[in-house]
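Quick check before the chapter quiz. The format below is the same one you will see on the exam, so make sure you can read both the input and the output lines.
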Amino acid sequence: NPLILSPEEMMDALPAALELAQAHFTSQCLEAILKLGVPNIVGDASLSVAEIVEAAPGTANADALQRCLRVLVNSGVFAESCRADGVLEFSLTRTGALLQMGVPQPSMACGAHHFVEKPMWAAWSRLPDYVLGKIDTPPFQAANSLGMFDFHAKVPQSSVPFQEFMDSLSSSELPAVVEKVGWESMGGQTVVDVGGGSGFVMGVVADQFPQLQCICMDLPHVATAAGAPPEGVSIVHGDMFDAATIPKADAVFMKHVLHNWNDEAAVRILSACSAALPADGKVIIAEAVLPDPGQASGASRTPFLFDALKMLSGGRERTLREWEALAVAAGFKLERVERTDCPTSQILFMARG
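Here is the expected output.
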C-alpha cells in the first residue's frame, strides 16, 4: 500500500526531495568554475564577476558565470556581498578555499574533476540500467568500453586527477594511518604499500618511523607519473594480481585498494599479497567499514556515497561481516579493527588463518 502524506507532511518533505533530484545542478556549476580556475583567481580577495572574467582564460560568459556562482553561494562554496555601487562580489568560504589548486594545502578540486568529468558522468548515466539489471557490466565499463583502471592507463587526463585526489584524500586520513597502525612496534621490518600510487603515505610513515623499510608498489604508468619517490621510500613497479611482482615484506599495507574490486578480485589480490609475506606476516588495510544492517546514521553518509561511487567500477565498500568473510576466503583471519575518527579509513589487521 502507498504511504500517503498529509498536506503538512508533504510540504515538509518537499524541499529535501527537490534537493536530492537537483544535486547534479550544483556539481556541474562547480565543474564549470573549476575549469575557469575561479577559486584561484579569487583567493583571499572579494571580486566582481567582471574582475573574475578579466583574469580568467578565454572568453567566459559573465552572465552564466554569475548564475553559477550564486548557486554555489547557496551551497557554501562562495560568500557574496554587494558593493556601494550595487555590484555583486564573491569571496571564498573555507569550503571554497579547499578548491584552490597548487597552493600549500590539500585541494579537493581534483576530486571534483574526477567525480564529474565526462567519462564518469557517462558512467553515472548507466547506473540506472545496472540497478535494473539491463546491463551486467559495471556502469563505467558500459559507458567507456574499458574498466576504470584500464581506462586510466590509456587516458592521463583522467588518471592524473584521480591520483591527485587519492593523495589529497590521504592527507585527511593521515592521522588515522599514523596513529592507529602501530608502526612504532614494527622495528626494522619491511612494509610494502600495494597500490600506493605516488608513495605519499609511505613517505609520511618513513619520515615518522625511519626504522622501517618502506616500499611503494603500483602499476608502471602510475609509479612513473608520480616522479621522484619521497625520501626513505623505494618505488617498485608491479601488479597486485601477480604475486611474482609484489616485493617480499613483513607487512603489506593497502589503503583504498580493495574497495575498488568485487569480492572475487579482492580475494585474488589478498592471495597474491599472501605469497609476499612470511608465515607471521600481516596485511594492514585502511578502508571504510559500513555499519551493520539497521545501524546507518548521518556519520555513515560518506562511506555510503563512496559505495555508490565504487558501484560504477565494480567495487564496493564492506561491512565488518563482509570483511571477515573476505579474509577467510583468502586464507586470512580478520584479527581486529582499530576504529578511527575518519569514516573512510578504519584500520583492519589480517593474519593468516
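If your answer matched, good. The mean pLDDT is 93.
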